[in-house]
């Protein structure tokens, strides 16, 4: 499956000068479904003065520059990495805008049997929330306009973004039960605070196994919002197949360009964001790890308490957190506890174990979960005071845990 845009149709046309010309150009690219609607794109363009006559010609030029800008980009099908410049990411996203990845037709966020979609066509229609797709398109427009302004100012966009696919090793039940590392004290942040504000930390993306989830379609929760505010993250969809149970994807250097208000159906674009993160060794100091939690939407929520599923989540978190060159402060929260149906008490403990084993300090942002906010600090303090190790806690979770009330069970077993 190719990662190269097909410019045959685009190169035969001139840059669109009207919205009708734009839709005709996108439809002709052959990477867009024949019956695709453009009503959300129309609204986003209407709400973005200057887009057709200033930003769009820039996107057009960048898309056509692919043969000289983009390197050969093999799929990251196993533990491996790819480093692109901001200019190369811009070229990928410009082609995604015009839907020129013709071998990757979009169908419900997929662009092939095991690959995410990359063309933006599912974002253009009216199959989702409506206002949400418009908000995300305006975030993408803000990114393109920022890139245009920088290029006009002489910026060659040489700063790097690195995408790394990681596989967990040494993550059997025996490995966990025999781990003698001490539990590290977690930091539980105030209710209402967002981990997205912890930009100097190693931030967890509550991911879909399709990296980016429905970011360029109907999605509007944590991962999808992050990817649209930081569009360079979307580039990972071009060459990162669906994650397996022992994999994670780390993205270093992606910049945030927009900000938002609301969440899910209330998501709104709130304007430009100036990312003040420091730069080190030619890359922005932004570290994000995508890990997909167990998806319990089809029912059977009690499955998450079985030893096999506990080991699955430990392995997934370990794959993402065991990154020696990432910041030691890791920002996370209620991973997989929204639409995926996870138990926040259990997930907080599993992430704490993975953080401690990886020598990371867990900064937990419970957001609106009062139980975690009120109970985790005291439980952690008691377990640490008694010298509890990662292995001791893992052994109990894998062998003794019953469904529900993880905090109470741990307190009853270790703090009596």
Can you tell me about this structure?
The protein has 416 residues and is α/β, with parallel strands linked by helices. It has 16 helices and twelve strands. It has helices spanning 8-11, 19-28, 39-46, 51-64, 66-69, 86-98, 121-124, 131-152, 173-177, 222-229, 236-239, 307-321, 344-357, 370-385, 390-399, 406-414; strands at residues 80-85, 160-167, 187-188, 202-207, 247-252, 258-261, 268-272, 279-280, 283-284, 287-292, 329-333, 361-365. The protein has an eight-stranded mixed sheet with strand order 1-2-5-10-4-11-12-3, sandwiched between helices. The mean pLDDT is 95.
Summarize the helix and strand pattern as letters: HHHHHEHHHEHEEHHEEEEEEHEHEHHH
Tell me the fraction of residues in β-strands, as a range: 5-15%
Q: What is the approximate shape?
A: elongated
Structural class: alpha/beta
**Largest sheet entry:** 8 strands, mixed
Mean pLDDT: 95
Number of strands: 12
The radius of gyration over CA amounts to 22 Å
């Amino acid at each position: 499956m190719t990662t190269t845009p097909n410019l045959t149709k685009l190169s035969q046309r001139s840059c669109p000068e009207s919205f009708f010309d734009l839709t005709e150009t996108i439809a002709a690219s052959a990477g867009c479904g024949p019956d695709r609607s453009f009503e959300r794109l129309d609204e986003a363009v209407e709400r973005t003065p200057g887009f057709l006559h200033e930003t769009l010609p820039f996107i057009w030029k960048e898309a056509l520059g692919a043969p000289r800008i983009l390197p050969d980009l093999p799929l990251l099908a196993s533990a491996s990495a790819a480093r692109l410049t901001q200019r190369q990411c811009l070229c990928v996203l410009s082609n995604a805008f015009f839907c020129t990845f013709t071998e990757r037709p979009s169908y419900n966020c997929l662009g092939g049997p095991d690959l995410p979609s990359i063309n933006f066509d599912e974002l253009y229609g009216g199959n989702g929330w409506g206002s949400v797709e418009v908000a995300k398109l305006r975030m993408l427009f803000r990114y393109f306009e920022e890139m245009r302004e920088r290029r006009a100012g002489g910026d060659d966009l040489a700063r790097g973004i690195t995408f790394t696919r990681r596989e967990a090793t040494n993550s059997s039940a025996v490995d966990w039960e025999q781990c003698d590392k001490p539990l590290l004290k977690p930091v539980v942040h105030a209710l209402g605070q967002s981990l997205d504000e912890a930009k100097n930390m190693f931030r967890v993306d509550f991911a879909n196994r399709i990296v980016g989830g429905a970011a360029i379609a109907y999605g509007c929760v944590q991962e999808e919002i992050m990817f649209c505010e930081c569009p360079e993250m979307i580039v990972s969809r071009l060459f990162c197949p669906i994650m397996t149970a022992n994999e994670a994807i780390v993205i270093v250097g992606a910049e945030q360009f927009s900000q938002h208000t609301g969440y899910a159906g209330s998501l709104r674009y709130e304007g430009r964001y100036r990312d003040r993160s420091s730069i080190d060794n030619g890359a922005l100091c932004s570290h994000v790890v995508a890990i997909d939690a167990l998806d319990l939407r089809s029912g059977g929520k009690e499955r998450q308490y079985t030893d096999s599923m506990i080991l699955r989540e430990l392995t997934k978190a370990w794959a993402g957190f065991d990154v020696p060159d990432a910041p030691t402060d890791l920002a996370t929260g209620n991973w997989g506890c929204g639409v995926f149906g996870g138990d926040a008490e259990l997930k907080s403990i599993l992430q704490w174990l993975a953080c401690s084993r990886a020598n990371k300090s867990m900064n937990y942002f419970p957001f609106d979960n009062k139980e975690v906010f009120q109970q985790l600090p005291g439980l952690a303090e008691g377990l640490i005071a008694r010298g509890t190790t990662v292995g001791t806690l893992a052994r109990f979770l894998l062998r003794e845990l019953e469904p529900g009330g993880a905090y109470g069970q741990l307190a009853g077993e270790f703090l009596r």
